[in-house]
Amino acid sequence: MAPHRREGLLLAIAVGVVALTFGVLADAAGLELAQIIVMSSLVFTGASQFAAVSVVDGGGSGAAAVGSAMLLAARNALYGPVVARLLPTSWAPRAVGAHLTIDETTAMASVQEHDADAADAFWWTGVWLWSLWNIGTVAGALVGAVIGDPESWGLDAAFPAAFISLLVPHLRTAPGRVAAVVGAALAIATVPIAPAGVPLLVASLAVAPAYVRSRRSATR
Asked: Which of the residues in the chain have pLDDT under 70?
C-alpha cells in the first residue's frame, strides 16, 4: 500500500473513533437514528455536526443550530481552489469530490508532491473518511442509550476539544489571536443573555477586527 494511502486510512480510523462520540452525543441530544444518519452522510463535517447537536442539546432553536453549523462549514469553501484541479471535469464526480472536500482530505492532497498522488490521496482518504465517519456515527448512536449520560464519561468535552483543535493553528498569527480574544469575549458576554447557539454566531463578528489587524500588518 502506498504511504499516502496508509496514512489516509489511519487518519480515517482516528476520525471514525471521534464519530463514535458524535453518535453518542447526538443520541443524548434527542436526535432519532434516521436524523443522525442523514446528518452524517449529507453534512459530513465534524465541527459543524458537533456545533448543531450542541445547540439542540442546549435548547437552542433550529435556526441557531443550522446557523452555527453553516458558519463552521463555510471554511470548506476555501479548500475548493486547492482540490479543484485534482477532480474530473464531469459534473457527477466533481459533485462527489465537493462533498468530500474537508480539512482532512485537503490536507492529505496538499502535502503530496505530484498531482497523481494528490488526487489518489484525496479520493482514498475521502472515501474511507466518509465510510468510517458514518459507521462510527451509527455505532455511537446505537450504544448511546447503553452507556447512559455522556457527561459521566467525559464525552461532553469532545465538542470544545474540536473547537480548540481548529483554533490552535491560527493563534500563531496576530490576526488569529485578535479573533480568538475578541470572539471569546463576545461569547462570554452573550452566553448569560442569549439563547443557545447565538453566542457562537455573535462570536463570528470577531472576524472584523481580525481583518483590520491583518490589513494593518500588510501595509507596514
From this structure: 145-170, 196-197, 200, 218-220
Q: What is the CA radius of gyration of the chain?
A: 18
- Count of structural domains, the chain: 2
Predicted confidence at residue 76, as pLDDT, reads 84
Domain that holds residue 183: 173-220
pLDDT of amino acid 151: 60
173-178 CB contacts, 8 Å cutoff, 24+ apart: 174/213, 174/214, 174/217, 175/210, 175/211, 175/213, 175/214, 175/217, 176/210, 178/206, 178/209, 178/210, 178/213
72 and 144 belong to one structural domain:
yes
168 falls within a domain: no
User: DSSP of 66-92, one letter per residue?
Assistant: HHHHHHHHGGGGGGHHHHGGGS-SSHH
Q: Could you give the CA distance from residue 109 to residue 112 in angstroms, rounded to a whole number?
A: 6
The answer to whether residue 24 is domain-embedded is yes
CB atoms inside a 10 Å sphere around CB 75: 14
pLDDT digits (tens, 9 = 90+) for 43-55: 998 888 988 888 8
Residues 30 and 86 in one domain: yes
Residues 69 and 125 in one domain: yes
